[in-house]
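#data-curation
PF: Archiving a pair of folding outputs for the training set. Convention for this channel: one message per protein, sequence first, structure tokens after, nothing in between. First:
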Amino acid sequence: MIRPVHFRCCVGLALTVLAMAVCAEPAAPARCVTDDAAREVCLAQPAQRIVSLSPGATELLFDAGAGERVVGAVGFSDFPEAAKKIPRVGSYKRLDLERILALKPDLIIAWRSGNPRAQTERLESLGQTLYYSEPRRFDDVASTLQRFATLAGSEAVGGVRAQRFRDGIDALAKRYRDAAPVSVFYEVWEEPLMTVNGEHLISQVIELCGGRNVFADLPALTPRIGREAVLDADPEAIVAGGMGEENPAWLKPWRKFASLTAVRRDTLFFVPPSTLQRPTPRLLDGAQRLCGQLESARGRR
């Protein structure tokens, strides 16, 4: 017969052992990735409340399978359709810090070169976890999908979509690797007139299609230039983004320069800006369209 005092001791001992076992269980591993500022970003658990500070990052989060976790985004976050319904936290150039903090995010995706540094540093000083995004290469787009998926716990989706993007870029590279070069001027903005240098992702798309960016050697990533510089370069093709997804109005002013090769051959092309000017998987759509246009330019020589 077990005496009551001994029973209580046994129960107490069992509870102590159970508590020790629970405490001994290993904690879930932190989700750690390296962002585009070479900083390690770690979360104790998958992000549940994400704020995106650039339209491109918003799109990438949806592609990575984390769209439902995005609780705040900047203006012009318009793709996919569901992104239009996300509460706004200002523009990428002027963030609304109070709105961001009120959303209680556990992860903020910042645009390294686009967001005001003082404001992103302020968010960090207030204890917010920031991931700085700045895809500059094709593989950066794919790896960003995978890193976002890791932070959000959607690795299966992010991995598949990253590989799909890589495969699409590889297919274009093989198709156009021996294509005759076409000199290209890409107009990223009209007033002031702006283009891209060779380090820009858009320039890499031009090269992928067998094109040659006539302003690749300029030092600034998105340099301002004069129309005389374009006339001197005399590109075989002029490609413009424009103010809207279906508005090629920026091409019209070039038609008055009849001496331009691109005008004489009617190789003035429009590509919807969001498919080339955002570093997202839709870059593959823009690349396919641009490659077809440059192939057309070759046929008009």
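PF: Second:
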Amino acid sequence: MSQEQMGWQAGFGSVDFTPPPNLPMMGNFRADYAATGTHDPLTARALVLQSRMDQAPVALLSLDLCMMPRSCVALMRRWIRERTGIPAGNVLIAATHTHSGPATLALYGMPKAEDSDIEAFLETAVGAVSSAVDRIRPAALKLGRGTEDRVSFNRRLLDASGQTHMNWEDLSEAEIARVLGPVDTEILALQVEHEDGSGGVVVNFALHPAVLDYANRLYSADYPGYLAEALKTLNGPRFEPLFFNGCCGNVNHIDYTDPDAPRRGYQATQRIGFMLAAATHSTLKHGATPLNAGPVRPLSEHVALARHPITDAQIEWARQVLERDDSPFVDAADGFPEEARAETWLEMHAAQHQADSVEVMAIRIGDMAIVGLPGEVFCEFGLDIKAKSPAAHTMVFELANDAIGYLPTREAFPQGGYEVVPGSTRYAPDAGEKLAQAAHRLLSDLFSTSTSPCPPSADG
């Protein structure tokens, strides 16, 4: 490796933060949310990176959780700053979006874990960053780009009558006229190599980790856990794999054209994880591009978003649903049960005239970029950000630094479907566009010159 390629400073850390059983799990609707045990560990994995020792490093932290609200992120950023000195504005924290982890917020009326339990496992999780800081040493970076087109599918389908369906519904291929959107099949892999042969990789791919459904009662990382397991097997025990989900708000693993394909359970989860690991490994072994040392610089912008209105008629319907006592709750693998929708609409109605402000983050790492968006983002936005980015390579992470619900395209709202129902989305139809525009602004600022010094990041 050349001296220029070894011009980075990097360190990895990981922590098993699996909590005790009986905490409510998040991601599926059911009568009993309590976890009964652990199938595979929930892990926090961190990469701390800087280009020169006189600059503050940035930290990337990935957690095997469904999502984290901004209050949890603020708490973790404070702990990281106090323990490592890394400014809070230099820390990006994202949930992998496994539907088999403990609940950190009461989404759709589902229960969340007690605050004391949440703080306990999050405090354990931030130890991954402390460990990464302790392991910082010279490193070389490579960027691999590959494709895996057999595991992800746009889940929004249009039938011949013009009605929108979701691909988890019981539909035959003959009933469907077309798929209402693309998928992002690109795997981006940022490899970090130390002189002693240790290192790791940041993997970015857009696919819902919701293979395990309401029937699963065990903590699990879903397919990202198998992805990490396979990459460690292929590269050795000192190799640390981080997974950051791409824009997959309208993308899942269900191929409606193949009713015999495995749809749920650990076998399907393992298949996806191992296939992504194989594609990642091949990408890194064949054609990864070295990244020469350059600036490491984070920027953030807070974007004002109008909330989705709830009508008087919807409020009346919600009250009627919650008053009735003759319809027992039915476990649901997918969709939005009426009881949950009713509670969510009442909550949204109370705040609908209060604009919100949400964070979009971007990080320059030499000639590549990372964008962090705070919700479950339709893949069209991720594709657009990458296509227009001034960086040579751009990763886009969803559920980064917050969890604000679905961010559909403007075109999706009149089409209908699960993601645009009030409650699934909480903001006006232009919200996704506004966040993508903020990402474009941040990337333009970060790459406006290749030689500008990196100002200290705001501490927040």
